[in-house]
Design a protein that fits this description.
alpha/beta, globular
């Protein structure tokens, strides 16, 4: 099964039990910093973060490989009168022409890891803009979580990757096996 089919299947299943997509709780805790502008939500899934950012006065560009997820996000944005442009995109193909000459006030990635995106993300964020990421990491306590180590961060990896940025929040949650960063570009 290819990636698109796999994610379409997962999102169809999740939509059966979903009332309203919810944002990442750690992103939500950063609300005081979120004053509106332009946002990019990479691997947006069913759009919990995109919807949250749009309600915080951001014009959101949301991308995901799943046409099921993108259709859901588009429909929800239209229904709620939110400024979200949702687009199907395979992030493993780094020829993202729609991002050429664009910059964003915030870029968000939740539970998706492709280290090849880090240089692009750094270039897409305006000086003074923010980056939020949360995904699995190789936690001693949490085992494999059903996720291959290639899709998990190393301990403190995001701190090293964004060492030249102002780190506003960083956490390695051993109980959940996730690593989170919220930082600002200098």
């Amino acid at each position: 099964m290819d990636s698109k089919s796999k994610w379409n299947s997962k999102y169809k299943e999740r939509m059966n039990n979903l009332k309203e997509p919810v944002p990442n709780p750690r992103l939500k805790k950063q609300s005081d910093f979120l004053k509106g502008g332009t946002a990019l939500d990479l691997a947006c899934g069913l759009g919990g973060n995109s919807l949250f950012l749009a309600r915080k006065n951001y014009q959101v560009h949301a991308v995901d490989i799943s046409d099921v997820a993108i259709t859901f996000v588009r429909d929800k944005a239209e229904q709620d009168h939110l400024k979200i442009q949702a687009q199907i995109c395979d992030l493993t193909e780094l020829n993202h022409t729609f991002l050429v000459n664009q910059t964003f006030d915030i870029v968000v990635i939740s539970y998706y890891l492709d280290r090849a995106l880090f240089p692009m993300v750094k270039n897409l964020i305006k000086v003074g803009g923010y980056f939020f990421m949360e995904t699995f990491f190789q936690s001693q306590m949490h085992g494999n979580q059903g996720v291959s180590n290639q899709y998990k961060l190393n301990p403190k990896e995001l701190l090293g990757e964004f060492k030249d940025w102002d780190i506003l929040f960083f956490e390695e949650n051993e109980q959940e096996g996730v690593q989170t960063i919220f930082c600002q570009k200098r």
